[in-house]
C-alpha cells in the first residue's frame, strides 16, 4: 500500500476512534488529576462549571492505580458543596479494587481504571458544584495511585 494511503487510513481510524470515545451528551464534567503518592492530608479538588439545566446529577469517582498499590480496596470520602445555597453532602465509599484471588476488578492491563458512583444531587440552572476527594485509610501515604477523577452526569 502506498505511504499516502497508509497515512489516510490511519487518519480515518484515528477520527473514528475519537468519535466513538467521545463523552455522551449527558456527561457534563469529566476530569482527572494526577496523584502519584496520595497523602492522608491531601484533598483532590474539582470545580464543576455551572449547571446549564436543572436536574438530577450523579457524581462518580474515578481511580487509576498501578501494581504498586498495596491494598485490595480503598476508603474514599467525597464531599460535595452546591453553591449558591451552601448545600453540603458527604459520601464515604468503600471501594473494592482486587478480588480474593488477586485479580484487579478494574479495566486495564498494567494500570487499572475504576469508576464508583456516589449519591445523586439536585442542581438548579446556574448552580456550581465543588467536589473534594480524600482517602480515609489507616496508612498515611498510598503509593500506586496514578489519578483521581470526577465524572458528573445529568440523569
From TrEMBL:
It comes from the Bacteria. Keywords: Lipoprotein, Signal. InterPro entries: Motility-assoc_lipoprot_GldH. The keyword Phosphoprotein does not apply. Residues 1-24 form the signal peptide. This is Gliding motility lipoprotein GldH.
